[in-house]
Amino acid sequence: MRNMRKGHDGASKARVALEALKEEKTIAQISSEFGVHANQIRQWRQKLLEELPQFDKLTTVYRSTEEARQGRR
């Protein structure tokens, strides 16, 4: 019988990556806590770091849109 790969949803990936970004625990501790291989945690953390600037731009656009909406009221 073949081993099935675990599937991780986006929320759990983000939670693990954010935990790694905090640098309060070692990658080994996070790996043990979440049951995810250390290399996978490093990849998710790197992906998060690469995509954070895009998220910041989206947040800025969203906030300016919300401010414009509230200004009309």
Task: Describe the protein.
By secondary structure, the protein is an all-alpha fold. It has one domain. Helices cover 77% and strands 0% of the residues. It has helices at residues 10-22, 27-34, 38-72.
Name some characteristics of this structure.
mainly alpha, 73 residues, 0% strand
Topology of this structure?
Layout: H1 10-22, H2 27-34, H3 38-72
Helix pairs in contact: 1-3
State the gist of this model.
The chain is built from three helices and no strands.
> How many separate domains?
1
Q: Which percent range describes the beta-strand content?
A: under 5%
Largest sheet report: none
- Sequence of secondary-structure elements: HHH
**Count of DSSP strands:** 0
| Terminal CA distance | 63 Å
Shape descriptor reads elongated
Number of helices: 3
Q: How confident overall, as mean pLDDT?
A: 86
| Helix/strand/pairing category | mainly alpha
Please compute the radius of gyration using only Cα atoms.
Answer: 17 Å
Helix content: over 70%
Runs in which pLDDT lies below 50 for 5 or more consecutive residues are none
